[in-house]
Amino acid sequence: MKNQLLIWMLPLLLLFVACGGPPAENPLLNEAAEKFDSAAGDSTIVRFAPVALKEAEEELQVSRELWEAKEDKVYVDHHAYLAIQKTVIAQETAKMNAAQNEIGRAESERQQVLLDVRLSDAERAEERARLALEEAQRERESAEQARREAQELANRVDELEARQTERGLVLTLGDVLFDFDQATLRSGGMRSVRELANFLETYPERNVLIEGYTDSVGAEEYNLGLSERRANAVKDALQERGIPENRIQTRGFGVEHPVASNATEAGRQQNRRVEVVISDQEGNIIERE
Question: Residue 57 and residue 152: Cα distance in Å, rounded?
Fold first, then answer.
């Protein structure tokens, strides 16, 4: 009898073990780990930007711990994105510090050249020293500019309250930012549009895809039309603030791609939304299939 009971329970035990396996891979976390490992293997970055590299490592560790604990993917991706940005900052900081080190070396070289003036052509020696200093200064300024741009982008993304996804940065405008069953933006929605317009003005190389969604209540054809009207309302608001039409795409999905269950009011409210997908630096956007 006991043997028969064990044989009956064995499939259930195997199923339980399988369900307790490791979580699926996270592409953004993998990308963050690859970029950090590459930076950590660069002796220039290790030497000239150890603090910035450590900050990137800490963000990566937080993302890994959240992933291993099977926490919400939004939080895992957020810290993975910060790890990528801080790795970029470490790279640019290393360039800047290396350039500053080069300036010191160039200054030493200049001093040596000045000592040799008595034995060589004074004018040519001074010109060589000047050019060395100017080149080092240009490298330092270029590295500092790149570091500032990377930090500014990270700050602006936080201000937008956009989240990093596999499709890129996504800003969500909830149903509460529209008049009920209408495509008219309320004041809260207009504030989000203003912030998005400011972001697009600052980064003219980036485009947007505006996608409208609804819950499952009502006729499917009506919901599709409402989702399209809401997406176009956001597009019109951006154009009113000077964003060119050729930088904006819109699509209505109606009841497709829900983010929560339509069985509850709370779930339906989450599904009634407009998502703004922000392109990469080349203007590319990954559309839904």
Answer: 20
What are the boundaries of each domain within the chain? 26-160, 167-278
CATH fold of the domain at 167-278: 60s Ribosomal Protein L30; Chain: A; (3.30.1330)
In terms of phi and psi (left: phi > 0; alpha: psi -120 to 50; beta: otherwise), the region of 254 is: left
Q: Can you tell me the distance from the alpha carbon of 137 to that of 96, in angstroms, rounded to the nearest whole number?
A: 10
Beta strands 248-252 and 208-213, pairing class? parallel
Cβ atoms within 10 A of the Cβ of 193, count?
24
Q: What is the tens place of the pLDDT at every residue in 123-139?
A: 777 788 788 878 877 77
Tokens of 210: 């505006």
pTM > 0.90: yes or no: no
How far is 144 from 275, CA to CA, in rounded Å?
34
Structure tokens at 75: 């939080």
**Each residue's pLDDT tens digit, 142-201:** 667 656 655 666 666 666 678 888 888 999 988 778 877 888 888 888 998 999 999 999
256 Cβ contact list (under 8 Å, min separation 6)? 213
Spatial separation of the C-alpha atoms in residues 124 and 236, rounded to whole Å: 62
> Which of these, 218, 224, 181, 202, lies nearest to 281 by C-alpha position?
202
∠ at Cα 185 (181, 191), nearest 5°?
150
